[in-house]
Predict the 3D structure of the following.
Amino acid sequence: MSYYGKAAANPDFLESWQTQLDAIRDIFSHTRKARASLTESGTGKTDPGDGQEDGLATLPSGNPISLRRKRNSKVGGATAVDAVAAGGSDETDDHLDGDDLEGDEPLSDLQKDKNKFVRWLRARHAQEVAGVALGNYGEQVEAAELEQLKLQQRRRSSIELGELEERSASAEEHVRRFSFNGDCVSTIEAHEDAVNCIATLDNGNIITGSEDMALKVWNPNQAKLICTLNGHSEGVNCVTQLTDADTVASGSDREILVWSIAECAVLKSLKGHSSYVWGLLMVDGLLTSASADKTVRLWCVERKRPEFGECFSVLEEHRDSVYSIAKFPDGTTMATGSADTTVVIWKGAGHTHHYVRSRVLRGHTKLVYSLVAVGPAYLASASDDWTIRLWDCDSGSCLSCLDGHDAAVTSLAAFLGPGGSQVPILFSGSRDCDAKLWDLTTMKCERTLAGHRDEVLCISVLASTHHCGVLATGCEDGTVKIWGIVQM
């Protein structure tokens, strides 16, 4: 069971785990002092050979632990000191805070970056345990909310019994529909051709763009079509919400259209790219677009400003088509992924709408289809090389390469919780017809969402509370599936 799962099952786990970690630190400290004493007295060996045990100690849980130095265990040239439970596997030290231990050998920069990421995840875990006591997700809390709703309704004498029963039934339906463990809630026959993109609106609705040149707005809970936007002359590649849930932008061949959903009309056509527009995202109040012409453009999309529709800046750094954009929680840092296999990190320079290259991340062997931030300085990237990479953007280190899909990974989405306070949950879609849920505490796939008959081209987190999230996936066959996900 992962660290998160243990904490969810037993809120006391964090306290006992911290006690054992403190004991491990004490053991390293005592071992180091003993070696120093032996060295001063001229007796004993301070540097045992391969696999030679330095001693046994006992943790508060009663489990014996063996400390040994491994000469052949190296990361970036540095010897690693492992704390291995006697008779167990080396994998039991997954959550040790390596660069805090008092060992004799320095850790590599990569291992320090990984340890920093683990500490950050651990802080998210602690916040969740303190805030919710982690109980049974999607069951106890939802049931309590339902009972509270019924009680409030009974106290309102002005509401007739029939309305009370109707609203209670609606709450029960919400619990039933959104407490599944990765089950498909509904399938929408959305378009006549491939669904290339999905975006979630602030009002809970979703908008889909298709190769059939249409955009459609849906109520995902009811699988109900709200309106259709027609105006593109070629397939719609990308879509994003702008300043509010009524205004969106969509990209196709060379052209970006700004729409009013309420009016079902085009407000502005943004022209400047010389080839296909593959990605759109609002970053620091500006619409950011990624194109096959190798550039990234920043546009003013505030209707009340005289500059509405103007291009404020053009970023030229990639050597091939730019496919994807992601923004970080600070609001002024973004990343772009390209067919040149690189990811470029950009930093905003104040309020000048000017961005400068901060770092280039290299590791993928084919084009980068999708990007998503999973923390203040952590980024996930999906590639045509079938992998997902997790990056520390401060240092440029690749923390992990997630393998699991059997074809190109086309899309990523992440659930970070309100204000980014929760442990990030990563979702991916692939041309292997599956979507997957990844636990970043273990760097493993925790669940595969199977059911599409064709390639999964886009993915979006639709709605989320502290206890559950709802996901939508768009497919090559024109369908959209809604999934109920209970948080781990």
